[in-house]
Amino acid sequence: MFDSLSDRLGGILDRLKKRGALSEADVGEAMREVRRALIEADVALDVVRSFTDKVRTRAVGAEVVKSVTPGQMVVKIVHDELIAMLGSDAKPIDLEAAPPVPVLMVGLQGSGKTTSTAKIAKRLKDRVGRKVLMASLDTRRPAAMEQLATLGKQVGVETLPIVAGQSAVQIARRAMEAARLGGFDVVMLDTAGRVTLDEALMAEVAEVKAATGPHEVLLVADSLTGQDAVNTAKAFDERVGLTGIVLTRADGDGRGGAALSMRAVTGKPIKLIGTGEKMDALEDFDPRRVAGRILGMGDVVSLVEKAVENIDAEKAMAAAERMRKGNFDLDDLRMQLDQMEKLGGLGGLMGMLPGIGKLKNQMANANLDDKVIRRQKAVIDSMTKKERRNPKLLDASRRKRIAAGSGTKVEDVNKLMKMHRQMADMMKAMGASAGGKRGGPMAG
Ligand code: GDP
Questions:
Q1: How far apart are CA 57 and CA 60, in angstroms?
Q2: From CA 289, how far away is CA 299, in angstroms rounded?
Q3: Keywords for this entry (predicted)?
């Protein structure tokens, strides 16, 4: 989401860092460039102005004059002000209330509201062991109710049985009652959405809010809609009152403007961001980490967290052991590809490592992206068990069959085989030099 802004700011600040001394004019010029970069990223104009003003004032002040490396200092100021703009501290969902705690989900249709409801329910169940009940209040769209029920089954969270003919408020009351009787900790209320903001929608949401007294009112907004997302949040906050924002489609190619302006314009924190369609594609929004990522300072913390969550340590150890012995087969390669994909593909992984921006661009040029990973997995999936264990079996006719089976070209199969051979050789060499040490090059 922040890629192009990150590139722009990185360039501007790099140039600044190289300078020995900085005049007021230098800072002014850099701030004009920063301003342009933020506007192009679709950040609200008021927010841009106040941001560059603050940075300029601090940068031309005594702080910089006294510091040894003025350029570095400016970078630090930009970093600090970026964090302030994003809201300083991460604000997780607050469930500190007597159970069952109602959480109201609001937003426009298509923003990802139902998906986010299920993602949050799953997270509360998995991470903090809460017993969650979900209820859809979308009385006009039976499909929306069914969608929530389906997602509930998928993530192992109960949904309130559908009773035809009830109003949104009646369903909400029934959900609270069922939660009380059933000993649930949290009730997620997925309100109806509309394609556009209208008074009927607002009135219904306000009514449900009054009836249930939710502890959190979360607006789900689509980051791809840029400033519209911010305006939607403002409108909902003024009419019903919000406690936070869930910003979806952060995995898309939005310019970042919604994420960057949301807090400053609405005063409400972004609590979570949706990063994909899968049920675990949800991340905490931590201003410090986001600022670090934008300025290319890396994000080792979230990388480590993600790795711990997603990687099956035992499997990885077993694979590493086989690799060390030089028995790296195609099943092992497939597992490696799986893990790469889980870590958000090479793209996601790279963005989190410090100083890796340039390398990431090179990788993108080499086309080692998620699509390639998926294609490679498809190739492996079209092989028989025997072939995966013993790649030597793969003669021309087998390769042709595999290409046809996986919807790829023989060329793709050949490339994968070459990659496998190179990795196997490399691992064998590393394994041999590592002697009998535990683990291996990819033990993680
Ligand atoms: P609702 O009408 O607001 O309830 O929207 P849905 O929850 O039905 O979501 C609409 C579509 O957006 C679905 O296809 C979701 O899978 C997709 N979606 C939701 N959140 C995200 C996200 O963070 N990233 C991506 N790529 N897709 C998302």
A1: 6
A2: 6
A3: Cytoplasm, GTP-binding, Hydrolase, Nucleotide-binding, Ribonucleoprotein, RNA-binding, Signal recognition particle
Provide the angle, in degrees to the nearest 10, between the axes of the packed helices 257-266 and 45-60.
80
Token pair for 166: 């009830």
Q: Which amino acid, residue 277?
A: E
415-431, pLDDT tens digit by residue?
999 888 877 777 676 65
- DSSP character at residue 393: G
DSSP SS3 for 408: coil
CATH 3.40.50.300 placement within the chain: 101-296
Q: Which CATH architecture has domain 303-433?
A: Orthogonal Bundle (1.10)
The architecture of the domain spanning 101-296 is 3-Layer(aba) Sandwich (3.40)
Task: Write down the residue that tokens 């595999």 correspond to.
Answer: 402
- 110 assigned ligand-binding residue: yes
Residues of CATH 1.10.260.30 domain(s) within the chain? 303-433
Residue 355 neighbours by CB distance under 10 Å: 9
Q: What are phi and psi of 136, to 5 degrees?
A: -95, 130
DSSP tag of 279: T
Q: Whose CA is nearest to atom 5 of ligand 1?
A: 112
Residue written as token pair 């008074």: 199
pLDDT band of 28, cuts 50, 70, 90: confident
Nearest ligand 1 atom to the CA of 109 is: 2
* The model scores a pTM over 0.90: no
Q: Does the Cβ of 110 fall within 6 Å of ligand 1?
A: yes
CA-based torsion, 51, 54, 58, 59: positive or negative: positive
State the distance from the centre of ligand 1 to the C-alpha of 278, rounded, in angstroms: 9
Residue 250, marked binder: yes
The answer to whether 318 is annotated as binding is no
Q: Give 288-311 pLDDT, tens digit per residue.
A: 888 888 887 544 444 444 555 555
Task: Please report which residue ranges of 142-253 form alpha helices under DSSP H.
Answer: 142-155, 168-182, 199-212, 227-239
